[in-house]
Amino acid sequence: MPPRRTPTARQERLGIELRKMREAAGLKATEAASLLGVNSVQISQIESGIAGVSEERLRRLAAHYACADEDLIAALVTMATGRANGWWEEYRGTLPHPFLDLSELEHHASLRWDVDFLHVPGLLQTAEYARALFSYVNPQFSGEEIQRWVDHRMKRRVIVEHPQPIPYEAVIHEAALRIKVVDEAGMRAQLAHILGLSESDHVTVRVIPFAVNGFAGAGSAMVYAGGPVPQLDTVVRDTPHGTVFVDAAAQLSHFRTLFRRVEEVAFEPERSREFIHRLAKEL
Fold first, then answer.
1. 33 DSSP 8-state letter
2. C-alpha 131: how far from its chain's center?
3. Average pLDDT for residues 45-67, to the nearest whole number?
4. pLDDT above 70 (res 58)
5. Which residue, 2, 23, 125, 283, shows the most beta carbons closer than 10 Å to its own?
6. Could you give the CA distance from residue 280 to residue 283 in angstroms, rounded to a whole number?
């Protein structure tokens, strides 16, 4: 099989985890290559996500690296062998790669946390709200192109709206709920949509009010997706240089701590619903 030209974030993550495993064992790429009967270039391609790896070879590597975490190994095998095309593939070539990578990440996630300060989190957005955001940021796009972006965002909501949803928690600052991305009627519809979802057992929405004193966490915006095992959790952040997928253990621990800190200063779910309901009535 020829090397991939553009590996997905999931394929890259598999390679990253295999490299971490090898480095933890104190082995060089040449030693891993010798075990599989290949050259070090092929090991480099596997570890960069450019080349795939079979279950048999993956398990041989894990054994050679003295990895005894069976849950992690099983999760990596699933990443290596699960080649089912998801719904997001219909957008390949027409939407940026990070959009598709995020869709795939969400599809395989065990849980999802969002923290946002300026906009309603994507999974909670109405089509009208999402269209307004995309149109403002991409004024050069045609209506048809914008609609494709909106359709993709609406399909992403499947992870919290289908019959077997994953646990979802969102912490939203009051600013995000007050900024009128759309007109008043559209904002009332957006707030009503959040309220409706927040009534679901698997959805928890908390609001951080302006009135909180000493809050300096406005830089803590994040998308946190839980993996099948904690080592495979991922944080997604938008930066001035593009979308970044964070996977280092120390960074994941840092963002888990940040999430709990912003959660602590937010209203409890019931009070948050009352707050959102009051905002909707004010519009």
1. H
2. 21
3. 95
4. yes
5. 125
6. 5
